[in-house]
Every structure is written in C-alpha cells, then in structure tokens.
Write a structure and sequence with these properties.
6 helices, alpha/beta, hydrolase, hydrolase activity, 22% strand, 225 residues, Rossmann fold, single chain
Length: 225
C-alpha cells in the first residue's frame, strides 16, 4: 500500500445525522463515482423516525445488487434500510492491496445515506458474505465506534487495521463449505475474536458456501434483538 493512500487506515468518517430525512421507501441508485451503490428503504418507513441501517457487502466477483441479496427479503418485515456498495475491483481492497478505494467509496455512500435518512446510531451494522464477510469483520472492527453490529456469513479471515469500539458480532458458516473451509476460517476467527473480548454469536449449519434463509433470519433477529 502506498504511503498516504486515501482510506489507507481503513477509517470511515461519515456519521449519522438525526436531522436528515426525505428518502422515499424503495430502491435508490446512489450517485457515486466509479462504483455501483444501492440503498433500499423499507416499505412503511415513517420519514421522521430513526431507522436501523445495514451496510451489506458482496462476495468476490459480485456487485452492489449481490450485496443486497442475503437480507433484502427481510428488510420490510424487520424495518431496516440496506446499503450495498460495489467493490472497485473483483474483490475488496484489503484482500488485494490494503485499504484504499473501497473505504473511500463506502465512506462517500454512507455520507450520502446519512444526509437522506435519519439513521439510528445505536442500530448500525456492516454485513457481508464470503469475501464480503471478511471485509465486514475487518471494516467493522476498525470502525467499531461507528458500527454497533457485524454480521459475517462464511468469512475467510479478518484484517482490521485497528480496534475501535466494541461491536457485537454474528458469524455463520457451513460445515460442508469447500470454498472457504470452516476449519481454517470461522473456527479460527471466532476464538480469536473471543480472546480479544468481543461478544460473538456463532452459528454453524449443515451446508455449503451459502447463506440459508433460516440463518439470514436468525442474524436479522439477533440484530433486531
């Protein structure tokens, strides 16, 4: 990573604004430069009420639309907004060459959302699947003074730049996962997090590299609890 690279410390600077408001329910394409970004505001959302937000990150080779997929079906029922941002490359920056362009794009997207939606600062999560889960853990721990929760579905590893705050963490992993085998991934990551003092809810399931609907629902119930 080049010295002085923007976003190189992995830190996000956007913060919720209680005075924000105005986004209509439904899917919104955000005007970001160079990457796709989508905001889903749940049906029945009262514009003046603080709204939980989940930043949801796609796996390798995916895009913002893929980022919405694991939790989109539950957003209306549970009453939370979803923000999905596409990686600048095939996968997230820290997995390839250290923090940088993706941190910058996510920060820009969050600033845009915080200016349009009164996000509840006590219910602000980062979530992801596969490489997106690894990035969610890494970004969530680095920015635990922003994110209150981290949802990581089948992560491979974590690479936080620093520890800030104490976000609660949900991790799930399939015991038959051949893409990111559980023994070398979540079964190593979870004990490391616990040793570091994090509160971790861990769910193993009989399955492959996926997010089963019942696991997604469990994660949302945990976030909502």
């Amino acid at each position: 990573m080049a010295p002085g690279r923007r976003g190189g410390d992995g830190r996000l600077h956007a913060r919720p604004d209680a005075a924000a408001g105005g986004a209509e329910p439904g899917l919104h394409h955000l005007p970001l430069t160079g990457v796709g970004a989508l905001l889903y505001v749940p049906a029945g959302y009262p514009p003046d009420a603080p709204l939980p937000l989940v930043l949801s990150l796609h796996g390798a080779g995916g895009n913002a639309q893929h980022g919405l997929s694991p939790l989109r079906a539950l957003a209306d029922e549970a009453g939370f907004a979803l923000l999905a941002v596409g990686a600048a490359g095939r996968t997230w920056d820290v997995i390839v060459d250290g923090y940088g362009p993706d941190v910058e794009a996510i920060d820009e997207a969050l600033a845009h959302v915080f200016g349009r939606v009164p996000v509840d600062p006590e219910r602000l999560a980062v979530s992801g699947f596969s490489d997106g889960a690894s990035y969610a853990l890494s970004l969530g721990i680095t920015n635990g003074d922003l994110f209150t929760h981290v949802l990581a579905f089948s992560p491979g590893f974590m690479a936080p730049a620093a520890q800030h705050g104490a976000p609660r963490i949900f991790i799930s992993h399939g015991t038959a996962d051949r893409v990111l085998p559980i023994a070398g991934c979540s079964r190593r990551v979870v004990p490391a997090l616990q040793r570091a003092g994090y509160e971790v809810e861990y769910r193993e399931f009989a399955g492959a590299h996926t997010v089963p609907p019942e696991v997604a629902r469990e994660a949302v119930g945990w976030f909502d609890g």
